[in-house]
Amino acid sequence: MTDLLKITDLDVEFPTRRGTVLAARHVSLSVAPGEVLGLVGESGAGKSTIGNAIIDLLERPGRVAGGEILFEGRDLRQLDKEEMRKVRGAKIGMIFQDPQTSLNPLLTVGAQLVETIQKATDHKGAAAVDHAISLLEAVGITEARARLKSYPHQFSGGMRQRVVIALALAGDPDLVIADEPTTALDVSIQAQILDLLKKLCRERDLGVIIVTHDIGVIANIADRVAVMFRGEVVETGQVAQVLGAPRHEYTKSLIAAVPRADIRLDRFTSVDYIEGGASEATRIDIRHHWLGQGRRADPSDDAMIEIDGLNLSFTLQGALLKRNRKMVHAVDDVSLTVKRGEVLGLVGESGSGKSTVARLIAGLYTADAGTIRVAGQDVTSKPNTPEAKRARRMVQMIFQDPYSSLNARMSVRDIVAEPIRFYRTTGSEAETRRIVGDLLDHVGLGAKAAERYPHEFSGGQRQRISIARALASRPEILICDEPTSALDVSVQATILNLLKDLQEELGLTMLFITHDLPVIRQMADRIAVMRHGAICEVAEVDQLFAAPQHPYSRHLLDLMPRMEMLTAVPA
Amino acid sequence: MADISETRPPERPTRWQRMTDNDIFWSFIHSPGAMIAAAVTLLCILACFAAPLIAPFNPFDPAQISLWDGKLPPAWAEGGQPQYWLGTDNQGRDMLSTILYGGRLSIMVGLAAVCLGMVLGVGLGVISGYVGGATDAIIMRIADVQLTIPGILLAILINGIGRAILPLELREDFAIYVVIIAIGLTDWPQFARVARGATLVEANKEYVQAARVIGLPGWLIMLRHIFPNTLRPVLVIATIGLALAIIAEATLSFLGQGIPPTTPSLGTLIRVGNEYLFSGLWWITFFPALTLVVLVFSVNLLGDWMRDALNPKLR
């Protein structure tokens, strides 16, 4: 079988004002017809760059510096702009990450499809419309003829991604490049889209390159996989071989860092290879430290968080008359109890209201009905008694996006010291500085980080700063709202380890929110499954994974990426 | 992901290195237009503020003014005298010196008015965006109503009221402050709108939520977290606003509503010269007008560049 696409020694460089950055170095890949090649790597590994280089859509000022890209025997680098445009329309289809932005919101789906078909093929007029209908049917959209007249906003996220796939297929291409096609989608939809891609690949004998950071996606769909690290392909091979018996050190540590759904581990395997030899943190004796002081001497209350009959609606569309207002019930009669020192996982797909519950407990939203008690104190509305204010301060939160959760104009010291200075919990500025240093040491950044500004740190390091800031309030309850979903797997493992250690050392009560079941298996003691603002099921973690009671829990568990082929757990 | 520990030099960068090592500075030294505009602006401002040191004459010193030397053309024209490079005005004041002193006043009025408008507008805008609800509605509707009235008319109105409530003997002395307040009060809705927009974006970011979870009071969050992060777009507006404020001062003075004609400012000079324009004494109005155009043009160019540099997506 001859290769459909063969890349040899491809170099891509980005000239910047700090010198030229090689985004891809001596990359060699090949894809055969009817084959799915997975291109996996962490952010900045250069995997999207390869996809863009093939179809000559590199973001300026990036350029291909060397090597050749042979597509059906022709070197794509030798083609001029017009020939390249033809190849791009008819021979190579592209699927982008975000279906919200890759369709034109002002045109109907039909108009966009027909336009692309007429440009890329010989179908004109009614034939083009018929072809559009057959494409929509091929990607699994029912009542295709009627839906041609719909606008993109009338489709759900998963349906929109199907339309994007139909667009990519419009010119009847031989090669499809899918750049993170399921990253913006919920797990249940991710599974459908992957199945569809695989089916199309088999039926049409397509070559597919799927670019992703998610090992689970690779395990489910790819035939062969290429692992990228800092612009280089470090390992290529059959999926079963690479995931089951990785040869390169990087692949090994990457796979070790993937949270497992089948077994609960004490800690994630250390992945020093990836973070470039993360400095071993100077840990402090936390119980005799300032952090351990200021706690209540005799905490007798057993339930740290009690919420009862919580309700919250958001106004979608305001109106003077009450009956004309459109509301969405974000939290629907939720009751929960979290015991002292317990980690409760809150799981659900996007829009299930799990983050809203967290924000209600943290006091960022005010409930319409119901009560929230923290350490026995009612904090449902704005706290006005000293006791209620103290209870509120026991709750701290770690946010999802490490880039927007730190004020870029403050130094790390000022960010971490803010709660200490505001509540005057130390005797002097010198003591504050010492404690900020200790906290930064403890989260593994080192005290010297205090002088610097957030933009100097990577995503994982920023999340460590966030954790240090939360600790500076001396919390007893830590709410983690998807703390690692914006991070690479290797960094995710180190952050989860840190959170686990802190939880044990300080006896923190934790509410851990995520959409990622394997992660929650490693972190939580009990799990609450949420859907449409309501709680479906609360169960001990092992019980939920072994015997889920609610149909929706079973459904979620079925959708977890299958990872049987991963290496055996290191003892 | 680039490894931080590899790319960063081991020692901490100095303050100067930190200032120069950013994209804005880099964009600046790679944009000839912006550098020329900055140089011209700086030259104008320096020359005007150094007027007492570099001006050949002092237009406020009656001993140096002689009506006999009035209405002399520039030095190179027929009948011009070498000590008066740009000629003299109707009162016998040296044009160059008068422009320098007048420019100083114009720039000071412009700067003060922009500062007033900025403080007022950004303050109200941030409060409006952060507090929301009825407060937001009231502040922004006032701004909307004010924006429907042409700025210069409003400035004339405020100026008129200001003069009317001042006792007669104080009017001359306080004319400058009245002009500053008039222009500043006219300016604030622009700043309020921009600051409110930026606040709405920033207030949704997680660092603001983190500050709320810590329990910081609203005023502290606005002051310490939101305000510094709204400064970028506000600075762009302020630069363009400076040009507009200088023009507003010139317009008010030209209309006889601003600075008294005895005190030289770019506006009063143009006004005085305008009366003599048809008698052929072009230089009295031409040179102040040219200064005004060059100054405003370069400040505007600077503002344009800054808008692009701070928002790379526009390019």
Automatic annotation (TrEMBL), chain A:
Q: Does the keyword Secreted apply?
A: no
Pfam families, per database record: ABC_tran, oligo_HPY
The UniProt entry's GO biological process terms, in alphabetical order, are:
peptide transport; transmembrane transport
One Gene Ontology term of the molecular function aspect: ATP binding
Tell me what topology the record assigns in the membrane.
Answer: Peripheral membrane protein
Keyword presence, Cytoplasm: no
Q: Which residues form the ABC transporter domain?
A: 5-255, 307-557
Localisation per UniProt entry: Cell inner membrane
Q: Domain of life, per the record? A: Bacteria
The residues forming a coiled coil are none
Q: Which UniProt keywords apply?
A: ATP-binding, Nucleotide-binding, Transport
Gene Ontology CC: one annotated term: plasma membrane
Q: Which SUPFAM superfamilies match?
A: P-loop containing nucleoside triphosphate hydrolases
Q: Which NCBIfam families match?
A: PRK10419.1, PRK11308.1
Similarity comment: family membership: Belongs to the ABC transporter superfamily.
This protein is called what? ABC transporter ATP-binding protein
